Amino acid sequence: MKTIALSLLALLAVSSPSSLKAQLLDRKVLTLEAAEKIASAAATEAMKRNATVVIAVVDDGGYPLVLKRLNDTQVASVDVGIGKARTAAIFRRPSKVFEDQVKNGRVAALALPGATPLQGGLPLIHDGKVIGAIGVSGNTPQEDEDIAMAGVRAFAADMPMAKAAAPKVSYFPAAQVNKAFEKGMPLLEIANYKIHASHRDAPGIVEIHIKDTDIVYMLEGTAALVTGGTIVEGKNIDAEEIRGKDIQGGETRQITKGDVIVIPHNTPHWFKEVKGPINYYVVKVRAEN
Predict the structure, then answer these.
(1) What residue numbers bound the domain in which 109 lies?
(2) Mean local confidence (pLDDT), 35-46
(3) Same domain flag for 107 and 197
(4) For residue 256, which phi and psi values (nearest 5 degrees)?
(5) pLDDT in the model for residue 206
(6) Would residue 226 count as lying in a domain?
(7) Together in a domain, 73 and 187
(8) 131 near 185, Cβ under 8 Å?
């Protein structure tokens, strides 16, 4: 009897609330209400562009929460849109990463289980963790991603309201930072500033941020960065972002490890050439209205 009693006490100690609490983690989940807002914002952007697309919002495991197929959108885009979203969710990075890998010769990326290596899937990030993703399919790869980005921005716009009431110290351990650079993803996004751990293997596109000033600190690699001048074929992808295909004029700099450059808001800028992979921090500071 004594042995049985001791065994029961040991079992109770192991299964006590404090013991169980130490083994559990708090995690944020994407609600249906939030997913519907994200999908609606993307749909609004698609309709502005007269785009016929499928929009899929999934949870962090890649399972659909909301699916919208706009009028006259091809049926084949349903599975592709879900696949793009699922890729961004389970691999914790934009689906374009895998498309770029295939373009650059890493055809093994085609064999990754669950991956759809097509541009248009973007992760939804809260407090540095991916809690879901959005995927768009039906138009050109860049337009699919632009429409998905409208959903991401709607999601990010809702997040600062909860954080503003209770500011806190943000700490990112080295392992988390390294993973962020591997995937090229934000570390922190709040109302008036953002911190991105950015990674590039290839040139980007011309961008103008209407409200955000970019402070860039190069950690690794070398790139040709064009700033200033006039954007060519600029297109508003939303109220705060313009993208284009080229820059007329402007100043080209070779930026490398240790360099810092500040790009004021409303300034065209473009990573025109990338010499090998580059890693860089971007602190985005929002101008006051």
Answers:
(1) 32-164
(2) 94
(3) no
(4) -145, -175
(5) 93
(6) yes
(7) no
(8) no
Q: Are residues 154 and 229 in the same domain?
A: no
Query: What is the C-alpha to C-alpha distance for residues 86 and 120, in angstroms, rounded to an integer?
Result: 11
Higher pLDDT, 164 or 267: 267
Structural domain includes residue 16:
no
- Interhelix angle 32-48/141-164, rounded to 10 degrees, is 140
Question: For residue 141, is it left (φ>0), alpha (ψ between -120 and 50) or beta?
Answer: alpha
How many domains does the chain fold into? Answer: 2
Same domain as 178, residue 116: no
CA gap 234, 54 in Å, rounded: 25
Residues 55 and 147 in one domain: yes
* pLDDT tens by residue, 210-243: 989 999 999 999 999 999 999 999 888 767 889 8
- 136-166 pLDDT per residue, tens: 999 999 899 999 999 998 998 877 544 445 5
Instruction: Give, in order, the Cα–Cα distances in Å from 38 to each of 24, 46, 68, 101.
Output: 29, 13, 11, 28
Integer Cα distance of 77 and 83 in angstroms: 10
Tell whether 155 and 212 lie within a shared domain: no
On whether the pTM is more than 0.70, the answer is no
